[in-house]
Amino acid sequence: MKAILIPIKSFAESKKRLAPHYSAPNRAALAAALCEDFFARIAQLRGIDGVFVVSQEPRALEAAKIHGWETIVETEQISESHSVDAASHYCATRGVRALLRLPIDLPLAEPRDIEAIFAEHQEPPSAVLIPSRDGTGTNALLRSPPTLFPSHFGPNSFALHLEEAETCGALVKIMRNPRIELDIDEIGDLRALDGRLDAASPIARWLARHRV
Questions:
Q1: What are the residue boundaries of the structural domains of the chain, listed by start?
Q2: Is 97 helix (H, G, I), strand (E, B) or coil?
Q3: Alpha-carbon distance 11 to 94, whole Å?
Q4: Cα 45 to Cα 114: distance, rounded to the nearest angstrom
Q5: What letter would DSSP give residue 135?
Q6: Cα(48)–Cα(2) distance, rounded to whole angstroms?
Q7: What pLDDT is stored for residue 211 in this prediction?
């Protein structure tokens, strides 16, 4: 069973590195737009057996249910790594054998990009990693089995995940994909979207209202 795990921080607590540029309500609206946009693209995927959303954000959980996905409701959010690891254990009990963690802030990622990650899946123990644009973060992480090694999302997560994968003897594949590598943390990331979005998409509409 192949599945996707999407961890979502409460919208009100999201995108704090953009605080010098946008108010808290505007950042929450950005997170909501990223979520809506990403969910629409995940819904187009083929060959995936399940989608799990772990969050305590009511709007994200409700949207996931509308899509028919399974929700894992959190009572607190300690860290993304904690959320992902707890949810990964749950997914394993549900029969998932290969689990891809993806964040919602990948506005350029297309369904074919995500399907390509699963195409690189190897027999367990194995892992597929896609770094962030600067090579330090982990923008996509496919683990088989889902609990193969602990998560280290945050500074230098790519090196830490690679080290964990090699330590546990996993077959490791590093992929490069410029669309998946662009996540939204800094103002420069938003500027990099200029001219690259469908004008009707939720994130494009947000950008139209908030000049970068």
A1: 2-209
A2: coil
A3: 28
A4: 8
A5: S
A6: 6
A7: 79
Hey, what amino acid is at 186?
A: E
* Cβ atoms within 10 Å of 212's Cβ, excluding its own: 13
Q: How far is it, in rounded angstroms, from Cα 63 to Cα 51? A: 12
- Say if CB 130 and CB 109 are below 8 A apart: no
SS3 142: strand
pTM, two decimals, is 0.97
User: In DSSP terms, which residues pair with 50 in a beta bridge?
Assistant: 3
- Cβ neighbours for 122, distance < 8 A, ≥ 6 positions apart: 144, 171, 173
pLDDT digits (tens, 9 = 90+) for 59-116: 999 999 999 999 999 999 999 999 999 999 999 999 999 999 999 999 999 999 999 9
CATH 3.90.550.10 for the 2-209 domain, yes or no: yes
Give the chain's end-to-end CA distance (angstroms, integer): 41
Report which residue type is found at 74: E
